[in-house]
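Technical annex B. To support the medicinal chemistry partners, we prepared a structural model of the target in complex with adenosine-5'-diphosphate, based solely on the information shown next.
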Amino acid sequence: MSEAKQPVKVKVSRAALLRSTRLFKYIQPYRLTFGLGLLALLVSSVSGLVLFSSLGDLIDVQTDQLNNEIGKITLFLLGILVLQGLTSFVRIYTFSFVTERSMARLRQDVFASLLTLPMEWFSDRTTGEISSRISADISSVQSTLTTYLAEFVRQVITVVGTIVILMGTSFKLALFMVGTLPAMAVLAVVFGRYVRKLGKKAQEEVAESTALLEEVLNGIATVKAFTTEWWEFSKYREKTDRVVKTGMKNAIARGTFATFIVVFIFGSIVGLVWFGGRLVASGEISTGELFRFFMLSALMAGSAGGLAETYAQLQKSIGATEHLLDIMEATPEIPKPIALKAKVAAPKGSIRFSNVSFEYLSRKGVLVLKDFNLEIPEGKTTALVGRSGAGKSTIAYLLLRFYQPQSGLVYWGEEPVEQMELLIYRSFIGYVPQEVMLFSGSIAENIRYGSVHASKDEVEQAARLANAHEFISEFPDGYETKVGERGMRLSGGQRQRIAIARAMLANPALLILDEATSSLDNASEGLVREALDRLMQNRTSLVIAHRLSTIKHADSIVVLEKGQIIEQGNHYELLQRSGFYAHLLKTGLDAE
Ligand code: ADP
């Protein structure tokens, strides 16, 4: 697990607290077990109190103030010890039982929610940010449920219980003791705030350095190729050095905090000894009672000190809960990650962009498409060409409904695509992205991504059509060959053919192909070309084209510039015009 994003403590507002109780629905199914745990906690806390307060009796037995009771008391104390031991086990077991199960459900729900969020949500955040945030938040909630909630309850019971018993033992002495508490509390709050602020800063700095690490791991090939290891290292060193500085500042604050508390507690103990000693001397209380007093006071001081820490942890987990709820309550684009029951037939007819205007929400005010009109005829191949930034991918994303146009409609046949259920609509589309995404796992699994329940034969058939069967069969493990993280163990051409096989298996009504810009060697290029031709045959296809061979084959070429169609026709018609297309071909299709 990445420790990068630590949950941030939030001010416990009523609203946040109320909101975080929504997580209780995860405990709900186990409420009986959880209740048993709480009961065990109660018994073990109370028996702890009894144990501490009975120790004084042992002293009084020694000084003969209680006659021959020593055996009984010791036996009683042993009984309490066993009880406490047992209840501790029950508490830890039951709380873990509940937590493990409810956290698994929470994890599943967060992941499910994440999958249903729209693309906009993801483009606003980095992968590292999302993943480290989620794992840190969940582990914070988890430790609260297993430990801190119980600690908090135990500490409160102990503090209240000890005060009650102390009052019963010697009202005067208890008053003296309790009189010092408020001062301690005020100091603790003031210091606590400062320490918390520093702690938060340190966490953010650690998160930054972890984000850098993840980024470097993702781009390790680029780092190495550009020999920028030193640069990444110096950035990392600067960030981690900053963590040390803040950490030390934090340590000094925490140290001072601890010192104050310790001095204060010991100061009050010295005061107590002095005051208690006088009470024993004057015969107001017995030695045993004084001893009990000290024991309980120590217990209380420990619990009161611990309370601050536990409280801070609870605050943190309320912050974590807020984040998790933010994800789970963000507006999803599909209700749930569910499998489609049956394949629905795609609509007939061509696809039309009708007066579509679109801007990315992250770059408001810049219209990428303005009153855009385009027809993608059924069963034909339409190629989009244009300089980088012209809006080709945006058109593909709008077709995939990753984003919604601000105005205008996209029709498929007679029906606006917006009116079709998103999951069903996307099931009509096959997408071959520029950077082929292979998931870790076998080649077969990767091809099956196109149709999860496809048989072995169907997978093989798709691979044959994609000119991939041959190279796959040459691997010792054949279709079961592991592709390695992000397909690193395969060549570019092989990856592309696997992506084509995947699309072949999906057999979509509409194919969106974002052609790879990197050129392949001639042999590979030929095989990929052939496979693509088969894939696009008689299929409505939109190709973001980067290769002349693809463009030549297209039924219609749409030349884009700044989100506008400036020329349209087939290769030869466009060449004859000697316009922008002809110019593009001369200067290279990918020129900026
Ligand atoms: P092409 O695919 O032709 O290279 P794009 O469709 O990717 O062009 O980009 C069109 C314009 O939209 C560019 O100006 C680009 O900077 C902008 N753009 C693309 N994606 C985003 C995004 N996620 N947020 C903001 N602007 C974007």
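Notes passed to the chemistry partners:
Strands lie at 351-358, 369-376, 381-386, 407-412, 415-416, 429-432, 510-514, 540-544, 556-561, 564-569.
The first strand starts at residue 351 and ends at 358.
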